[in-house]
Specification:
By secondary structure, the chain is mainly β. It folds into 2 domains: 75 residues, Carboxypeptidase-like, regulatory domain (Immunoglobulin-like); 138 residues, Porin, CATH 2.40.160. The chain contains 1 helix and 15 strands, in the order H-E-E-E-E-E-E-E-E-E-E-E-E-E-E-E. The protein starts with a helix and ends with a strand.
Amino acid sequence: MKKLMILLAMAMMCSIAMAQTETTRTIHGAVIDKNGNPLPGAVVSATDGAETTFVNADGTFELEIPMWLKSVTASYAGYKNKKMKPRFDQEMIFRLKKDKTKFGFINFFGGANFYDYGDNIGGAIGLMGGSLNNWGFYAKAGLTISGDANIGGLVIGGVTKRICKNVYGYLGVGYGSVFYNLSDNDGYYHDYIYHGMAFDLGVIFKLSRHFDLTVGYTQTTDFTDVEGCNFIPNVSFGYVF
């Protein structure tokens, strides 16, 4: 009886020792798209951990992870990341969906052009386009028109930044014509055009899947004085793709 008790104690100690040494296990499976096509080169990693592996050409993977790990993440460029709980006793199939949070847009814009302390009013028209993402870019090109129908130009480039869901801010700088209303030698007033810089900012509202509305403000200046500043509040509406 004493020998049996000793054997049982030794067996229990061995089991405990083996359980303590087995801290990792291997998971295996595949990473595919919604149509079942493999995504070779995708990354499977322990969420917030150091264990990482790349998916093979046939879409399969194998990874050794800690037994205490709560989730595993699969990622692939252009697709949304996906998390799953570890499954040690069966295949883990990660079916990834394309990330559609990146958009392009093209808009027609129009606005008023105030110059000479706002005593004179012209207009501005043109096109604006770019990308909408966490960080993106945009370009704006158009014409500015004085009250005397003189025509200048705007060429602006800058960045877009997501503020919250479906709302983006933009900020840019570029070239812009500056209008003055000055008197000639005979005492008659006329609009004159000078070269200057343009500063641009605003907010883009993604109204629906394919349409957006932009509210912005552009200022052109030749850095002389307040009279040398043209103020152009503008709005635009366009297509998101």
